[in-house]
Design goal:
421 residues; 3 domains; five-stranded mixed sheet; DNA recombination; Site-specific integrase; Integrase_DNA_bind_dom
Amino acid sequence: MATLRLTSKSLIQPVKVAIADQRSLHIWDTELSGFGCYISPKGKISWLVQRWTGGRESGKATRQVIGKGDLIDLQEARKIARRVLLDIDSGIDVIERKREARKPKVQQATIIVSEAIEKFSDLSAPWNSGRTETYLLERQRRLSVGLAEHLSVPLSGIQKANIRVALDKKETQSTRQALYAALSPFLSWCLENDLIETNPLASISAVPPVASRERVLTKPEIKALWSASYRMPDRWGSFYRLLLLTVQRREEVSGMHSSEIDFDKVEWTIPKERTKNGKAHIVHLSSMVSAELAQAQGYIFPASKVRLRGEKTEAHISGYSKMKSKLDGYMKAELAKDGHEFKPWRVHDLRRTAASGLAEMGVLPEVIERILNHTSGAAGGLKAVYQRYEYMKERKEALEAWGGCVAELVGAKMKAVAQAS
C-alpha cells in the first residue's frame, strides 16, 4: 500500500493515475498513522482510518470510512481521524457504535424491495426531477426484473452476494451494465434515506459500458426481415416494419397511440414524456407507414390481455425478447432460401440501418439528426441558428424517400408473401 504525506497537492497525481488506469488506490498518510484515503476509478476520494489491534500477525484490523472528499476537506478529515483512532486505542468498537447509531432509523423503515423500487421510481419525486417518464419506467423495469427473486423480501436483507448473482445472471455485458446503472442510484438512494445500513453495491466494480455498435443490416437481411415480419402475429409484424420505416426507438414505436397521430397532417407527435431526451418529437408518416396504420384507435400495438387489480386496462405490447427470437427464426429461414447466413442483430440496429440508408441517399447529417431526435451539445453562433431550424420539409422528404427505397428493395418479396398467403 502506498504511503504519502497527504496534502491537497500530493493527491492530484494519485487521482490522475486512478482515473487513467481505471483502478482504485489506497493511500496512507505518513503524518498521522492509521489515516488514509481510498480513491475510486472515477477519482472520487473517501477518507478512512485503520488500526491493528493485537499485532498484524494474529491481530484484527479495524477500518472505517469517515467521510467523502467532496463533503469533508483534508484538514477536517484528519481531525476526525485523530478522534476515531483515539477511540479505537481506548478499546471502543467504533464499527459497532456506528452500526448501533444507524439501527433505530433502519429498523423503523421496514420496507420490501418492490415498495422501495416503486417509491424510488415516483415521477413526481424531487430526486427524479428532469427525468422522463420513459426513462423512469425503463429503469424501474430493469430493477424489477433484475431483483425479481427478492421483490417480496425486506430491503435490508439484500446482501452483496444477491447483487452479484443478479448481475452474473445477465448473459451479455450490455444487460449487466444496464442493471448496474439502475442499481447504483437506487441503492445509493436507499442508503441516503436510511433504508439500508450499507450499500451492497459499494465494493462491486462497475460494469464498463459496451463499445459503440456499428451493426447495419444488409439488403438481403432487410428483405428477409420484411418477409419474416408477415409470418409474425399481425401487430408484431407491423411493429418491426414501423421500426425500420419511422427510424424511432423501440419503446417509442411500441407505445404509439392514436391520440399522438394527426391523420390529416400525416404526422406522429411523440410527447416529451416518452422520448429519451425529454423533448416532443414530430415524425412524418410516409406512405408506407400510413398504409400500416389506417385509422387505428387506441394503442397501435395493443397487448393481448392486460389486467390490473382484476380490471381490464389498455396497454401496449411487451415481451420483446420472445418475439425477437421468433422473428430471428423466420429470418434465418428466409436468408437460407437465398444462400445467406443469419447473423445476430438487435432491434436498435434497425434505427442505425435506416440512418445509414438515409445517409447513402444523400440526406444531410443535420436532417438525419433531427429525424433521430438527437440532441446536439453545440453552444451558440451561426451553428446554433441552424440547429434551431427543425428541417421539417427536409425530414418529410427524407422519410418518404426512405419508405420508397424500402418498398423498392422488398417489393418482390412483398408480392411473393402476399401471393403465398
